[in-house]
Amino acid sequence: MKKLLNTLFVTQPDVYLSLDGDNVVLLKEQEKLGRLPLHNLESIVTFGYTGASPALMGYCAERNISIVFLTMNGRFLARVIGSSKGNVVLRKKQSLASEDEELSARIARNFIIGKIYNHKWMIERMTRDYPLRIDITGFKEVSLHLSSIMADIRECEDLERLRGLEGQAALSYNKLFDQMILQQKDDFFFRSRSRRPPLDPVNAMLSLAYTLLANDMTSALEGVGLDAYIGFLHRDRPGRASLALDVMEELRGVFADRFVLSLINKRIVNPEDFVRKENGAVIMTDEARKKFLGAWQNKKQEKITHPYLAEKISWGLVPHVQALLLARYLRNDLDEYPPFLWK
Fold first, then answer.
1. Which of 37, 197, 210, 220 sees the fewest Cβ atoms within 10 Å?
2. Which fold has domain 6-80?
3. Which residues are annotated as a binding site for Mn(2+)?
4. Pair 23, 60: CB distance under 8 Å
C-alpha cells in the first residue's frame, strides 16, 4: 500500500478493499493489512482481480473518489466513478490543449527534455563506471551536444522544430548505444533502429520493451481519467495511443533501454533465444519471451526515489505518478508538468 498525490496504490496481490465508516480497509484472507481515511483521497488504484465491496464503490462514487482496477501486470481493466463531471472537464482541457499547437509544443517539450536529460545521465554514468571500455571523448562530446539541444528545447514553441531537435538528440544517443553493450559483442550489437521488422536481437528486445512500456503508460493515463489517444507531440492517428507515446519518452532510455542492456550484459539472454525468419526478421523464442516478461515484472518491483516527489516507490508506479502529475497540470493545479528526471 502506498499513498502518493492523494492516490492510494494497492500493489499487493489478492487484496480485497472494503468500507468501514469513512475508511478503506485492505483485507487479505480476512486478515486486515491496512486502514486509511477516505476523506483526503482522490482515487484508489488497485492491482489484481480480488475487487472491492459494493459499499466502498458506492461511497467513493458519491464523493468523486475514483477506483481503478488493473491486472497484476498493469493492464487497465476498469475505472469506477460517480456522476461527477470532473473527468469530462479534464478530457475537455486535454482536447483543447491538443488542438492548440503552440500549447502542445510547450507541454511536449517537457517530455523531450525528460528523455534527453535521462539519455545524458546514462551517458555520464557510463563514463564514470566504464572509463576503460568506452570512448570517453566521444561520450563527453555527445553529452555536451545533448545539453546544447536541451537549452534550445526549453525555448521551443513549435512542434516541427521540437521534433527536429528531438531527432538530432536521438541520432547522437544512438551512435553510442552499441558501446553500452559490454558483453556478448559478437552476437548482440546495435547499428541502427529497425522496427517492422526488427532485424537483430537488440532491436527485437527494444521493440518488445517499448510495447510493454506503452501499455503500462496507457493504463496509467486511463487510470487518472486522461484519454491516452489524444497526444501533444504525437498527433492523432486512429488506433495509436498518442499521449502514452508522448509521456513514455521520458522512460524510454532510463527504463526500457537500460533494461535491455542489463539482460545482455548480465547474460540473462543469449544468442539461442532468437530466431531469424526468412524475411530477415529476428524474433524471440517462446521461452525467451517468458524470461523477458518475468524479468520485466521483477524490474517494475525495484524501489527508487522519485526525483520530483522525493518518495520511495517502485519503478512500476512511475508511469502512474507521471500521469497524475500531467492531470494536475492540465487542471491548473501545477504551473508546469514536471518530467521524470532521473538522478
1. 37
2. Ribosomal Protein L15; Chain: K; domain 2 (3.100.10)
3. 166, 234, 249
4. no
